[in-house]
Amino acid sequence: MENKNNLVWPKCWKHSSKPHNFCPGCGHPILLKQLGYVIDELGIQSNTLFGIDIGCSLLAWNFFNVDTMQTHHGRTIPVVTGAKRARPNMIAIAYLGDGGAYAIGMQHLISARIRNENITVIIVNNANYGMTGGQEAPTTLPGQITATTQSGADEFFTKGPELLSNASELPAYIARGSVDNPIQLKEFIKKAIEWQIQGRGFSFVEVLSFCPTNWKTDAKATIKFMNKLKSIYPVKEFIKENK
Ligand SMILES: Cc1ncc(C[n+]2csc(CCOP(=O)(O)OP(=O)(O)O)c2C)c(N)n1
Ligand code: SF4
Fold this sequence. Notes:
By secondary structure, the protein is of the alpha/beta class. The chain is built from eight helices and seven strands. A seven-stranded mixed beta sheet has the order 2-1-3-4-6-5-7, with helices on both faces. Helix 3 crosses helix 4.
């Protein structure tokens, strides 16, 4: 299907759900579009479970014509893990925010990596708790002003892909992409899901994503802040292969 700008929508998108509920300028829909292309290209629409967390990720509940479930903050990973163990031929994707995944959900994330669960986890890193009004998240940058760090955040922050890469010696596909490079992002997501299809175990993509509403940025300042994020969180693959 083509829209008036001649952009082709992913076939697995549910067109009746548009317009969507994300804020103008949000990065989530850019990412979801790439995920949609990957689902189309791999032909896995009828066999995918899309698990979404609490946070802005849940606004994706009606995006795709795929089986979708939503659960509590950070619990999406164990829930899709259970489904995958029960139905190993299914493609299990967990989609969470950085707040849900790296704070309350961190133990689930690390366990999935250590236990080499054959699932794909996608984390949206927008450097704040988006849905609840822009509070500090584990990914908030040093000095960043948020709703709960009015004098600037402290110096501590979480690098998910680096952490997961070192959490186990087992092979895994781990990458960090960004919504300002959707072509590369699609490649990373595709490799992660192919890893799962091949039964190779845990795969993970962190995605640096725009949140202009809580960053309180216009278009130009949004790109500037994204560049700052990329200087702290390098966009790259951290693939662990068998030795
Ligand atoms: C167990 C639990 N704790 C806290 C909340 C409140 N809550 C809902 S959304 C949210 C923020 C989510 O932020 P993040 O995971 O970074 O996702 P984003 O909205 O930025 O995409 C919080 C704290 C909740 N719903 N459940
Ligand atoms: S609050 Fe941020 S992450 Fe959530 S929909 Fe709005 S721009 Fe997107």
